[in-house]
Design a protein that fits this description.
The complex is a heterodimer of chains A (122) and B (239). Helices cover 26% and strands 31% of the residues of chain A. Chain A has four helices and nine strands; from the N terminus they run αββββββαββααβ. Classes of the chains: A alpha+beta (122), B alpha+beta (239).
């Protein structure tokens, strides 16, 4: 099994910049947001709360605040090797393909750098 | 493990539900653009597409299979609201109202689902009036079905509601087999009871009555509609 690790965590300033660009949303109910073997619909940046990486219904890893999960799989159209579970009352920025297109067209590199530096594979 | 992308119906042109969905009237170029944007996955039985109370971020289009839509009661009991099947879309209401999901969508069997993100859908609706019209038609049909359901709860007996449900399931999932209609959908008696707003014991009693009268038949857990016209009379329907 591949060793999981959190990528570089975003600083509070970077997180604040990103949440201005993509408003955070609250998950009121605990649920699986990416299933093992699925191609992710979107990537998630954890702003507050808790996201777990799960394998065969067992937690194997905690994702830390300021980490983007599922981005490389979304960009490269690869299935995830793990399931991703979000716990109730967690806040995330939802990064979809249209948002990525918008980011790629930005002249300012701040947001692009945030995306490229804090992505964690699942 | 999910199938690789190439094995799934990645192109709308090859979709098994071609002709049934809201995007089917788009021209070839627009469909190719949609192909690039969508994400296709197979959901196994019990896996959820979205969960009540969570934020919406796109639209789900069912390529093949069945999804149940449930709502949780304050007492924590799931009520089955409806079944979505080939060509249906889900999540369209929440992306336009920007409310959190009002229900949970769960796969009943292996179901292939295409996901399209919210921003893309909104830009498509702005650019392509044919998609907007399809969505309005869909919302209108959904509203009509909800009104019918409310009226049915107030005006009809459990027996009439059961007859109506069997006819609806025959329309959506019926397969003609030796002069009768097999309802080709695995629903538990609890789920059927929940759709018509009764207890499973009551539902089972009325199923037995309809069987005794020869209107329906049962083999294992599978139900068959045998006398459609009589069932229409029982349901007090005018069609």
């Amino acid at each position: 099994m591949r060793r999981l690790r959190n990528s570089r965590l975003l600083t509070d300033e970077e997180l604040a910049n990103f949440t201005k660009f993509v408003g955070p949303r609250t998950y009121h109910t605990s649920s699986i947001i990416i299933y093992e073997g699925h191609y992710p619909h979107v990537a998630f940046l954890l702003v507050e709360g808790n996201i777990e990486i799960v394998k065969r219904n067992k937690k194997v890893f905690d994702v830390k605040k300021g980490v983007i999960i599922g981005l490389s799989e979304l960009l490269n159209e690869r299935p995830c090797k793990y399931s991703v579970k979000i716990n109730a009352n967690s806040k995330v920025c939802i990064i979809d393909k249209s948002t990525l297109d918008k980011i790629s067209k930005l002249e300012d590199n701040k947001i692009k750098n945030i995306i490229s530096s804090s992505s964690m594979a699942c | 493990m999910n199938k690789t992308k190439n094995e799934l119906p990645h192109h709308c042109e090859d979709c098994p539900s071609r002709g049934k969905g809201i995007f089917c009237e788009l021209e070839a170029m627009a469909l190719k653009d949609l192909d690039q944007q969508k994400v296709v996955n197979t959901y196994k039985k019990g896996q959820t597409l979205f969960v009540e109370g969570n934020p919406p971020y796109g639209l789900y289009c069912i390529s093949s299979g069945n999804i149940k839509i449930t709502k949780m009661s304050p007492a924590g009991k799931d009520a089955l609201v409806r079944i979505a099947t080939d060509g249906d879309v889900l999540g369209h209401r929440s992306i336009f109202t920007d409310e959190h999901y009002q229900a949970t969508a769960t796969a009943i069997d292996d179901t292939v689902v295409c996901f399209i993100d919210k921003s893309y859908i909104i830009s498509l609706v702005r650019k392509r009036p044919e998609v907007a019209i399809q969505l309005i038609e869909k919302l209108g049909r959904d509203l009509g079905a909800s009104e019918d359901k409310i009226a049915s709860f107030y005006q009809k007996s459990v027996r009439e509601r059961l007859a109506e449900l069997l006819l609806l399931l025959k329309e959506s999932h019926g397969v003609k087999e030796q002069g009768r209609w097999k309802i080709n959908l695995k629903l538990t008696r609890e789920e059927m009871a929940s759709i018509i707003g009764t207890a499973s014991e009551t539902l089972i009693r009325f199923i037995s009555e309809l069987k005794d009268e020869g209107l329906i038949e049962q083999e294992g857990k599978t139900l068959f509609v045998v006398k459609e016209k009589e069932l229409i009379n029982q349901a007090s329907l005018n069609y």
